[in-house]
Design goal:
single chain, 103 residues, 3 strands, globular, disordered C terminus
């Protein structure tokens, strides 16, 4: 199943092995900025825990090493058009205020 992973979904995948397995499947998508958001959240301590920068970077790298990367734009890109036209839906933690696609 193809999915787009935003920062909240990546963080959930790092803390729930069932979600992690989905993130490691082929055909997963994220964007570079989601990695920065994930890193900032993991090292910032706002979730009640705080990773060391090297540890956070290693976890993110391991989780996303086989993912495809796309830049999201105000005008839908070719990839976003494809996602929207192929019934992809959101992969996001409820209330996170971010969006993504999964199929």
């Amino acid at each position: 199943m193809k999915r787009y992973w935003d920062a909240s979904a990546l963080i959930d995948a790092l803390h729930d092995s069932r979600i992690e397995q989905k993130a490691l499947e082929p055909g997963q998508w994220t964007r570079p900025h989601a990695l920065a958001e994930t890193f900032a959240t993991l090292t910032g301590g706002r979730l009640g825990f705080c990773y060391l920068p090297d540890d956070a970077a290693a976890l993110i790298r391991e989780l996303t090493q086989t993912m495809n990367f796309v830049e999201l734009e105000a005008k839908p890109s070719r990839h976003e058009d494809h996602a929207l036209n192929n019934n992809w839906t959101v992969v996001s933690r409820p209330g996170a205020g971010v969006w993504g696609f999964h199929r």
